[in-house]
Amino acid sequence: MNVLVVGAGAMGRWLAERLAATHTVAVTDTDTDRAAAVAADLGLDTDTGGSYDLVAFAVPMSAIEPAAREHAGRADAVIDVTGEMRDTLAALRDAFPDAARVSTHPLFAPDNEPGTIAVVEDAPDDRTTAALDVLTAAGNDIYETTASEHDEAMETVQAKTHAAVLAFALAGDEVPEPFHTPISGPLSDLSDAVTTGDPTVYAEIQRRFDGAEAIAAAAERVASDPDSLADLFSEEAE
């Protein structure tokens, strides 16, 4: 089938490369130079207009609504790898009311593939199934979920996790490697991973999902009364 990938960032490049294994793929982006560079690197076409069998959105959360409106009507099937389900599916339903729709969230960075891909099959058909088949063929595991279950989980696995790790990075000091414990060492490594990632992506996650305030409140509980620390550990162990 003919597929248009909207978005030529890291996830767009990954998705275009995967889909191109068995389908004809074109790439577009608001940055036309970036789209042209990705297309040239992967041996694909750039978008020249017209209709496709499937449009695949790989854009930031904040860009899905305008991107969906811009490309409305260009296909009868759509998928996305935006990373958020509620607002994304609402935007896709508005722009593609009669189309097949599936929302996906690869729970990994492209360099860390294979991994788990959360999937909400809002209105699937054979084209969206073919797109998912490409992702499973690359070794990824599909986890079927709902929009509400996914977005609630992201509050913990993304917003709260990133806030906690960034807070440690901001508060912690550099120490000689021999001093690190089995807990502090991996946490320090996680801090390096978070702070060397794309800050705009982490910022979008924090804006969309609640969680940072809960981490701050929990830290305040730990810091405010050292005498109750044993009780807090016991509370979490139950």
TrEMBL record:
Domain Prephenate/arogenate dehydrogenase: 1-238
One biological process term in Gene Ontology: tyrosine biosynthetic process
Record's keyword annotation contains Iron-sulfur: no
Keywords assigned: Oxidoreductase
Pfam families: F420_oxidored
InterPro entries referenced in this protein's UniProt entry, alphabetically: 6-PGluconate_DH-like_C_sf, NAD(P)-bd_dom_sf, P5C_Rdtase_cat_N, Preph/Arog_dehydrog, Prephen_DH
GO MF annotation: an example: prephenate dehydrogenase (NAD+) activity
Domain of life: Archaea
Keyword Oxidoreductase found: yes
Name assigned to this protein: Prephenate dehydrogenase/arogenate dehydrogenase family protein
Species of the source: Halosegnis rubeus
